[in-house]
Known about the structure:
By secondary structure, the chain is α/β, with parallel strands linked by helices. The protein contains six helices and 15 strands. The strands form three sheets. It has a seven-stranded mixed β-sheet, with no helix packed on it. Strands 4-3-2-1-15-13 form a six-stranded mixed β-sheet. Helix 5 links the parallel strand 9 and strand 10 (217-220). Helix 1 (49-61) packs parallel to helix 3 (98-105). The protein is globular and about 50 Å long.
Amino acid sequence: MIKTRFCLISDTHARAPFPPTDTEHGYRLPLPSADVLLHAGDLTTTGKLDEYKVTLDMLKAADAGLKIVIAGNHDLTLDADYYLTHDPDYWQNVKADVDTAKALWTSEEARTAGVVYLEEGLNKFELKNGATFTIYSSPYTPEYGDWGFPYKRDEDRFNPPQPDSRFKAPNPIPSWPAVDIMLTHGPPHGILDFTFSGQSAGCENLMTAVKRVRPRMHVFGHIHEGRDTKRYAWSSNASDPVLVSEAEDAWDKAAFADYSAEGEGPLRFGEETVFVNAAIMTLQYKPWYVPWVVDLDLPSAANSEI
């Protein structure tokens, strides 16, 4: 196993980090160095091209060999199904069309900087440190208002369909041990998903999938006030997970949690999952929160080929 560092952010909404000299704000340059940076969506406020460019510039400057990005419900122009069924004038000043937005995130400029834009599905990566991991990603969240990447709460996007299901998930998540990391914009139901009003806003079907998949780590955002990192253990009967530990938050540069063999104890793959709500913004859309930095042990790419 190879110790691997992740820098985790979400819901930056086109807000660049504060300058290094601005010590009053934890979200400031430079972002923490890592082997992998994961951004769990809401790159912008409404999908404007200039907003995407701000976020891409921020990611280009980050010190990470691999930088994986997904969209969120605010990134309207990355959701062709949504955007092409709406009058562009409905969202004021949204100038980027879906082709331009997608082209930016899949451009040579992005690839050269190590930025990889993922849509819904499964992908595998090998890292410069010799580790490998499989990641499932999805930008979709339960329908709420008129925003991008929506699905109805009674539609199950994440699990194999039942014989009588009207909706067939286009990319159901494979079961354990196929997935190391889950990266979704929204949280699963009951895990770091409580709103300021006390509502558990996460997706029930996503929670059903996580119980079945049991990844090493599940990273998301969307519910700003749910920001936190917690380690849960799974019971043998696939009931709700049991809280093992909660990482200590911080307000200066980064909040650290070490789940490697060198930290509080190696994560037991298939028996435990680390959940991270990596939102940078507060409920009032103030970029006050710092990135999470999480260390995990990942399989060796060399061993995985044997």
